[in-house]
Amino acid sequence: MNLKKLFLIVCILFATGILLSSQVSTTPECENCDSDLAEFPTDGCTVIIVGKDASVDGSVMTTHTCDCNMCDWTWRYVPAADHESGSVRKIYHISQYETWPPAEGLKWEKYKDDFTGLEIPQIPHTYAYFHGMFGYMNDQQLAISESTIGCRDKMKNSTPSAKIDLSMLTLLAVERCRTAREAIRFMGKITEKHGYGFHDDGEMLAVSDPNEVWIFEIMPVGPLWTPKSGKPGSIWCAQRVPDDHVSVCPNESRIGEINLKNPDYFMASSNVISYAVKNGYYDPKIGEPFNWKKAYSPSEYSATSSRGTRVRLWRFFDIVAPSSKISPDTPNMELPFSVKPDNKLSVQDVMNITRDKCEGTPFDPVRGLQGGPFKNPNYLPRPFKLDDLTYNTTRFISVNRAEYVTVTQCRDWLPDIIGGIVWLAFGAQDTSCFMPLYAGITKIPESFKIGDHWEFDRKSARWAFDYVDFHAQVVYSHAIKDVRKAQEKWEGSAVAKTLTVDKFAHELYKKDPAEARQFLTDYCVNNANRVIDAWWELGDQLLVKYNHLWLYDIKTRKTNKLEFPEWWLRELVKYDKLEPQEPPKKKEDK
Per-residue pLDDT tens for 245-270? Predict the structure, then answer.
């Protein structure tokens, strides 16, 4: 259908009240949540943010837990390019969630079937970068991490007037920008001009470079917006995280009161307050300061009142700043934007936080019966209904449906191609392994580029990690110990080796940057391939070792019973009303 005709139909439907009543969010929300808790997405992604003076080595760090469960997990490397004067960049709609059967084509070729009709002037030079679902880091050490935060329903704009959706926006940013501030201004300007939304609504991006990190939040401005209106096609706000602070975004808006007179810490679109006033989201007459999150993405729940579905925000502060003694009863909207951690964080600390499952807290998922006899924290990952009643379960940072997890490091004491690292772990982070990808490498393993949830493929890197994860679930408390040993061997050694790799690459760089790129490429690709091979082997070992719920010792070629915990056996006896076996009668002496 002609896009102009389609847009006209959409406008007519809206005018008659049909569009508004039938409009649904394009972001997946928890399937069985209480309607109030489902008002804004609670399932999406977790972003952890570390300022350079809050890290052990001076790195600026961010994470992205891509928590989709059904999305494309493949990765690409896009080389730098020079472009002729007068050339254009086509703009495409890219859904975060849509995939195709591999036989029909891979996502990062198929998306070009959805051209928006918009072409913008191409710039003379575009930077090299990595991307998965979003653009993550370029060769200038600009890094981006994402978390869906939602917005008010009336703000959503799924019409063709919104030319820019989130995936496209991040690709454009890493193609064209060198610093966090530059990227924020660019993303704000292009969405104001060409409209933001279509596939996406309220989103947060952690935007970092070697010197600083910002939380950038962007939302659509409703389905009636058109470029001819002369008004901004997006509304956005950005706040800088202090260098000695850490922060987190767990699918909730994080920016509160803003001070645009302090441009070193705040940036925003021109309509940041006026749009709220016009739509009744903020009344300046009441005498209270404007609060971004309360105006555009309010949520009144705490870790306790949500019964764990909104625990991530509190839990992060509980981990990094326990001395603050923040109560889980504190409403999330009242929790701080950022905090100074009790101790500076290393990259391994950050990786470990991405694996947190609220162990030892009132929200521990293996308390009581929930984890089963082998304390599996991945049981009941979503709220459930029983007898028309909804029961919430803990939604922790280390959710078991991650497509992949990233930890980015930006380091100002090294050349950009060496200073930037994306640590990538495919699949669920508790059973996966982080692998380094330096910003200056010129290719990634072929196995990163392929794979699909619905077709098992031994050529796909992701399936190696799912293979381990699947076998670990059955006897989790036992199998996770084997996984931890493998993580320590491969992930731990890669982290420890970073300083050595940095130093050698830097020496090569001083002589010839191309040689440094080649060295880093060989190191990253070879390391990744070894890790993938190790995880396929680990999956085989778990299958053999715990086969049939026994313990098979390959060294002694003997089997042993897999012991079930006493508490579980007692509950089994109680629930099934089992009767003990009577002891055999003694034979009477003749």
Answer: 999 999 999 999 999 999 999 999 99
Whole-angstrom Cα Rg for the chain: 26
pLDDT tens column, 534-547: 999 999 999 999 99
Measuring CA to CA, how many Å separate 516 from each of 15, 224, 418, 442?
Answer: 60, 51, 8, 11
Helix (H, G, I), strand (E, B) or coil at 442: coil
CA atoms of 582 and 70, how far apart (whole Å): 52
Beta strands in 411-456 (DSSP E): 421-426, 435-438
**DSSP characters over 540-555:** HHHHHHTGGGEEEETT
Q: Report the predicted TM-score, pTM, of the whole model to 2 decimal places.
A: 0.92
Give SS3 for 116: strand
**What angle, rounded to 10 degrees, do the helices at 166-176 and 180-194 form?**
130
How far is 52 from 58, CA to CA, in rounded Å? 5
Query: Band of the pLDDT at 483, cuts 50, 70, 90?
Result: very high
- Cβ partners under 8 Å of residue 448, min gap 6: 74, 75, 461, 528
Q: Decide if 358 contacts 394 (C-beta within 8 A).
A: yes
User: Tell me, what's the pLDDT at 11?
Assistant: 44
Of the candidates 281, 275, 261, 196, the one whose C-alpha atom is nearest the C-alpha of residue 234 is: 196
Environment class of 581 (CB within 10 Å of its CB; exposed 0-12, middle 13-18, buried 19+): exposed
The CA-based diameter of the chain, rounded to the nearest angstrom, is 111
| Domains in the chain: boundaries | 3-391, 448-553
Question: Taking Cα atoms as reference points, which of 392, 390, 367, 372 lies closest to residue 382?
Answer: 392
- Which tokens hold the place of 88? 């254009």
- Exposed e or buried b per residue across 74-103, where buried means at least 16 C-beta atoms within 10 angstroms of its C-beta: bbbbbeeeeeeeeeebebbbbbbeebeeee
Closest CA to 66 of 462, 539, 488: 462
pLDDT of the residue at 590: 53
What is the 8-class DSSP label of residue 492?
I
Residue type, 32: N
Contacts of 215 (CB under 8 A, 6+ apart): 49, 204, 205, 206, 238, 239, 240, 241, 247, 249, 254, 255, 337
For residue 380, name the pLDDT band (cuts at 50, 70, 90).
confident
Nearest to 156 by CA among 75, 102, 225: 225
Q: Compute the distance between CA of residue 20 and CA of residue 550 in angstroms, rounded to an integer.
A: 57
Q: What sections of 241-326 are H helices per DSSP? A: 274-278, 292-296, 312-320
**pLDDT tens-digit profile of 291-339?**
999 999 998 899 999 999 999 999 999 999 999 999 999 999 999 999 9
Instruction: Measure the CA–CA gap between 400 and 403, rounded to whole angstroms.
Output: 9
Taking CA atoms, 287 is separated from 133, 266, 273, 283, 290, in Å, by: 42, 21, 14, 8, 9
